[in-house]
Fold succinate dehydrogenase.
Amino acid sequence: ASRGAPPPRLAFSGRPGHPAGTASTGGICGSCAMNINGENTLACTKRIDIDLNKVTKIYPLPHMYVVKDLVPDMSNFYAQYKAIQPYLKKKDESNQGKEQYYQSIEDRDKLDGLYECILCACCSTSCPSYWWNADKYLGPAVLMQAYRWMIDSRDDYTEERLAQLQDPFSLYRCHTIMNCTQTCPKGLNPGKAIAEIKKMMATYNEKAAHG
């Protein structure tokens, strides 16, 4: 590397002997998520030590079944994402497909820091609660996505979305360890989103208790 140039980034050619996910190479698809030197991150944006004599240790995302080499099995993760119904839901569908659903600038601003999630699973696979309860606990990434739809002013199913998380595991296995926020390669804060869901859940339960 020339003087003043940034350190080199990891790159993968997709050679048959070295399977690894790659698509955008710009930190926007999440395909190349892996553990590099003990940190869950994206290979396409991770800078490695400028001293190329130093060893860079690369592993697949932790606590997931591995399809091959650096490719984890994301089936359960995607199934959990699908389960939260990550799309706008309207109770009056008579105008569906016939008009745009407008949103104020203020309401749109509330989604900043949420919609940027690329579902790379770096956060979920850094969470000890997800390691041991991935079959029941939705994990930071999916819960942040759930919150994104709960607070969307255009969505009519906030209470139903909260009701879906009422069991002891889906939401409440989060113990605010905050590994998720520390490792997110997009600089997002899943831990805060989960805390906001818990606050919404408390209000929802209190309202339900009083009829």
Q: What stands out?
A: Residues 73-210 form a domain with the Fumarate Reductase Iron-sulfur Protein; Chain B, domain 2 fold (CATH 1.10.1060.10).
